[in-house]
Each structure stands twice: as C-alpha cells, then as structure tokens.
C-alpha cells in the first residue's frame, strides 16, 4: 500500500483538509509536523502565537489518535526530516497545503526539487485561502492594490465549494518513525506569562467549531455591532484561521448558508462578515504580489518618512501607559489575552504612527510577538493601512482622534475600565502627548513626503 506523509503546517485540523483526504484515498498516512523556525525568514512565529501553536498541536495529536493515527513531531530542517521519515516509512509522496509567506513559499519551491531527487513527490494543495492570488487580476493583468475592485472581482469569480468531511479512520505505515513530544519543541515560554493566554482560547478543532457555530447564530448582528469592543460581537476566529484549525471555506459556508436569498450585500450583517474574510484574502493577494511589504512600505515614497525613534514613548505604548484609555485598554487586552479588538487595533496603530510618529514597523513587530493570531499578511496590511503607506491607505491626513473614537465605540467606558483598573483609583498616567498639537506635527511631516 502506498504511504504518504501529510505535512501539517498552518492547517492543524482534520476536516476540509484536501491533502489529508487525497492521502487517505491513496493508502497509508503519516501525519507530520516540523518545527523549523529558521525557515520563516525574518518572521518566525512570535511568543503568543507559539503558545497557541503548542496547545493546537497537542489537540491535533489527540484527534489523530482517536482515528487510529498519531502526529510525528520533529524539530529542525524540513528537508532532512521529510527525507528521513519517508525512508523509515517507505513513503514516496508528501502532501501539504500551499503557503504564501514569501520565505516559506520559496522554501517549498526549493524543497520540491530536492525531494524529487530522492524520488519523493511534494504536492501542494490550495485551501489556506479561498482564491489563488494568481487567479484574480485587474483588466490589464496586474494585481489589485485597492480592496473594493478586488472584492467585486472576487465575488464575481470565486465559487466557495462545500468543505470536505474529516476522515473517520487512518491507516498507518508498517513502521512508525520516532517522534519528539510537542513539549520538546520549546514553544512555551521559560517565564510564566502564558497561562492567561492559554485559558482565553479554544485550541482544539472541536472547540473552535463550537465557537464558530455560536457565532453563526449571531452573525446577523455582526454588521451593526462589529466595531464595539465593549462586548463579544466578533467571531474571534482569527487564531483558528491563522493556524488552520478551521478552513476559510468552512467559515464562509457556515455564515453564508444563513443568508436570505435576496440579502442586500451592502447592509446584510452576514455579508459584512464575509467581506472581512475577504480582507484576509486581499491581504494575502498583496503579500503574494508584493513580498517586500512586511519590511517596506508598498509605496516607496514613504521610505524616507521622518519617523521619531523615541524609545521611551514606544515603551509607554507597549505597556499601555500612554494616558489615552482606549489605546491603553487595547494594549493591555493584547498583553493579557493575545488578542485585541479590530477597532482598537486601528486606534492603537494610528496613535503609535501619527500621535507618537513612531515607525509602523516597531508596532508591527510588537503585535507580531504578542498576538495569538499574528499573521504576516493581515498584520502588514493593518499596519501599513494605519500608517498611511500601504494599499487602501487610510490617507495620512485623516488622523484618528482617540477621544472621539472612544466616545463613539466605547461610549460608557466599559471596555476601558475592564482593562485599566487604575481608572477607578486615580493612579493613571497623564497623556504623554497632546493630541491636537502632535496632529499638526504629523500633518507637516506628511506634507513634506507628499511634496518630495
Ligand atoms: C494594525 C492591525 C494589525 C492587525 N494584525 C492582524 C494579525 O496579525 N492577524 C490577523 O488575523 N488580523 C490582524 N488584523 C486584522 C483584524 O484586526 C483581526 O483579524 C480581527 O480583529 C480578528 O478578530 P475576529 O476573528 O473576531 O475578527 P472578525 O471580525 O470576526 O473577522 C473574521 C475574520 O476575518 C479576517 N479579518 C477581519 N478583519 C480583517 C482585516 N482588517 N484584515 C484582514 N483580515 C481580517 C480575520 O481572519 C478574522 O478572523 C490587524 C488589524 C490592524 C488594524
């Protein structure tokens, strides 16, 4: 019976898993996870994401054991381990989902050629996204840089099919290779800060599926309430999407199936949700076509922007001590739970780049290390948008006012009080900058760039 390695990467699930399904059809299956942080280039998973990954891997191993299999876990260079595992088990093929992070996509290209020399066929399947970034282009064949026309084309061109069922049983190889334990990968931190993050998140496929079903029951209200951080109004499925405990197809279909046939896509609550999933598609479209953007502005005229390298202010922002409650509440929510509400991410990012004039890359790096859903495409898009140097840029002259944003989206201050207990006791810092004054400085800096 042919033996296939199924290489789990950012797809830690059994349902809607095309490589797994194809391998099961073919014969025996060896599920593999390789921890190779050096192969992620400048962006190996950060601290909070690694905590989530640790528990998600344990859950995946448990799910595999329930269907007669197990997860083979190794640390080190992917090429070496894949070759070795194939040799031990007699496998002649490796099946996996395609990845789009530039360093990983390049690694996979090289790997395909290397494994072929040993007679091992590496086959990559679509499934991390709903569209292939090469599939959608402007009339002149270029990639999109603006969301609205991208989304219009996406909706016209992309059919989201039915998710595949999870296999009920897996046949194993005659000879199982040795495995490390998930604990041996060293994903959990040495210092003990991870428990609240672990407690805040469901990390098994069954639990995130339950969360999805719960959310689907409330999705009609999403369009109306999604901007309010003072309640549980969004799906909070971002880490599940990032690590693939759910496929975007499963989420899309579950939400879309509850939509009225004659729903107006401009106002429907569920359509508003699908549009956000569309932003994830757009973020990957950009990352694929403009692989320099995690480190450089999409538009090069921003290369010379006069950012202030003020370490003290950066530290105040990172600690949630800027004296602006909506910003500080977001940063503290992030630190405690590994997640921040989208509206507050926008406010906190705008504050860092426009009120403190600190380089967006410092903010992106902080988010990268502290978010459980840290995602190279979405994080890059979010930060470049906030700084005004990326696709669909929030124009630089439109500067979020943290006071009016708070009044609009956290009108009773419940969110701020939840994360900043000192607001009650009076031991809270004065604002580190005067918004009205720094706004002017930011606008002047922008004018220089615009006229350069
Ligand atoms: C500065 C900044 C940095 C960000 N960094 C990340 C990041 O590292 N990882 C990440 O997943 N998202 C990031 N986002 C986007 C967004 O804030 C999160 O996806 C969202 O808050 C996750 O919560 P949710 O699952 O409840 O979202 P929901 O509102 O329930 O949305 C559903 C899904 O759609 C996708 N989505 C929603 N909003 C966006 C968006 N603006 N851009 C791209 N995809 C989106 C996510 O996958 C999300 O899980 C960032 C936004 C900003 C402004």
Q: Which helices and strands, and how do they pair?
A:
Elements: E1 3-8, H1 18-26, E2 28-35, H2 47-66, E3 72-75, H3 78-89, E4 93-97, H4 102-117, E5 121-125, H5 147-157, H6 195-200, H7 205-216, H8 222-225, H9 238-242, H10 248-256, H11 269-289, H12 311-318, H13 325-337, H14 342-355, H15 360-370, H16 376-387, H17 402-409, H18 414-419, H19 422-425, H20 435-451
Parallel strand pairs: 1-2, 1-4, 2-3, 4-5
Shape: globular
Q: How far from one another are the termini? A: 66 Å
CATH class of the largest domain: Mainly Alpha
Low-confidence stretches: none
Quick one: biggest sheet?
5 strands, parallel
State the CATH topology of the largest domain: DNA Cyclobutane Dipyrimidine Photolyase, subunit A, domain 3
Total domain modules = 3
Ligands, ions, cofactors: flavin-adenine dinucleotide
CATH homologous superfamily identity of the largest domain: DNA Cyclobutane Dipyrimidine Photolyase, subunit A, domain 3
Rg over alpha carbons: 23 Å
Total strands: the figure is 5
Chain-averaged pLDDT: 95
Please name the defining characteristics of this protein.
452 residues, Serine Threonine Protein Phosphatase 5, Tetratricopeptide repeat, binds flavin-adenine dinucleotide, Rossmann fold, DNA Cyclobutane Dipyrimidine Photolyase, subunit A, domain 3, 48% helix, 3 domains, globular, 5-stranded parallel sheet, single chain, alpha/beta
């Amino acid at each position: 019976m042919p033996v296939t390695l199924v290489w789990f990467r950012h797809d830690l699930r059994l349902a809607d898993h095309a490589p797994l399904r194809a391998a099961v059809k073919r014969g025996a299956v060896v599920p593999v996870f390789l921890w190779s942080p050096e192969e992620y280039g400048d962006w190996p998973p950060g601290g909070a994401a690694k905590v989530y990954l640790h528990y998600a891997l344990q859950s995946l191993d448990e799910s595999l054991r329930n269907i007669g299999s197990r997860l083979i876990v190794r640390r080190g260079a992917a090429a070496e381990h894949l070759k070795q595992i194939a040799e031990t088990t007699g496998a002649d093929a490796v099946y996996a989902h395609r990845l789009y992070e530039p360093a990983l996509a390049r690694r996979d290209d090289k790997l395909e050629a290397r494994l072929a020399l040993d007679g091992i066929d590496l086959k990559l399947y679509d499934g991390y996204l709903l569209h292939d970034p090469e599939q959608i282009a402007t009339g002149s064949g270029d990639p999109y840089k603006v969301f609205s026309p991208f989304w219009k084309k996406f909706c016209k061109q992309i059919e989201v099919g039915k998710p595949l069922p999870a296999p009920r049983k897996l046949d194993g190889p005659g000879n199982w290779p040795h495995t490390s334990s998930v604990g041996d990968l060293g994903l959990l931190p040495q210092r003990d800060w991870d428990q609240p993050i672990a407690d805040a998140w469901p990390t098994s496929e069954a639990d995130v599926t339950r969360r999805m079903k719960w959310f689907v029951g409330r999705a009609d209200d999403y369009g109306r309430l999604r901007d309010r951080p003072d309640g549980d109004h969004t799906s909070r499925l971002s880490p599940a999407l990032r690590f693939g405990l759910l496929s975007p197809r499963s989420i899309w279909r579950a939400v879309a199936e509850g939509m009225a046939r004659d729903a107006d896509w401009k106002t429907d609550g569920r359509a508003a949700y699908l549009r956000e999933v569309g932003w994830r598609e757009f973020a990957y479209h950009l990352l694929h076509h403009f692989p320099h953007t995690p480190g450089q502005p999409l538009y090069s005229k921003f290369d010379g922007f006069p950012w202030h390298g003020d370490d003290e202010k950066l530290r105040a922002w990172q600690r949630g001590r800027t004296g602006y409650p909506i910003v500080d509440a977001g940063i503290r929510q992030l630190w405690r739970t590994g997640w921040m509400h989208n509206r507050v991410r926008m406010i906190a990012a705008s504050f860092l780049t426009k009120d403190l004039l600190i380089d967006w890359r410092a903010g992106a790096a902080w988010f990268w290390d502290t978010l459980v859903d840290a995602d190279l495409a979405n994080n890059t898009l979010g930060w470049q948008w906030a700084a005004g140097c990326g696709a669909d840029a929030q124009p630089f002259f439109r500067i979020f006012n943290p006071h009016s944003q708070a009044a609009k989206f956290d009108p009773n201050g419940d969110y701020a009080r939840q994360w900043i207990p000192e607001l009650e006791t009076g031991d809270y810092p004065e604002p580190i900058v005067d918004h009205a004054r720094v706004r002017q400085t930011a606008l002047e800096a922008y004018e220089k760039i615009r006229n350069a």
